[in-house]
Amino acid sequence: MNLEKYHFHYFLIGKFNKPLILFLHGFMGNINEFDEAIKLLSDDFDYLTLDLPGHGKTQVLGEDEYYTIANTAHALINLLDELKIPKCFLVGYSMGGRLALYLTLYFPERFHKVVLESASPGLPTQAERLERIKLDRQIGKKLTRSLEKSDFALFLSNWYNQTIFGHIKNHLEYNRMLESRLQNNPKELDKSLRFMGTGFQPSLWEKLQDNKISMLLLVGEYDDKFIAINTEMAKLCEFAKLKIISNAGHNIHFENTLAFVENIKNFLDAAS
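RESULT FIELD:
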């Protein structure tokens, strides 16, 4: 769908007689990020998935500023309007979780409940954000040098060596996931990292206390960094519930799909 400054590639699936979930993938993911989870949820929910700016087949038709969280969030609200979806459930992973949190805090009337998987409200201080911007630029340079598929594959292999991903490389479907990541354009990923990255994102910490939407915060047991972040989030936000998922690192929906789906269903089906 063409919206101002964006050409969105999306799937809207369902008979529209069931509750609808909007899924937002993480950095280097794409429209198929949640396929395995959706298979297990599709009897009870309709769903909308899409490629976020800088990923998959979605195209940004404007300047680099249209890769930012704020502009992307407004574009997604416009997309929901065009699709005549006044209100839905929202699930976001990592980068998509940060975007989902932004949507929740700035457009609360559009979402019934929200699930944030391995997400954060950004970095609280300007010094931390500037340091992260420098780091993301260095990572971006490595991405833009990945001219050959083998170079990009090496980048991905190094990426998943990060501690937050736990034992993800031992997963039976790890190579399939890598092949899906390789469908992205490294130069577009660089723009996403620079303009939607944690350093460029405005801090959402102070707005957490104003949130009135029920949120489920999911983190993997091997992801110490995000356990700490989400523990603080739950303390600040009265309507947020934290759940630590066993046998998973940062990418819970991939590593422990059954637990991910069970927690989503229980949370979204609950009366409050």
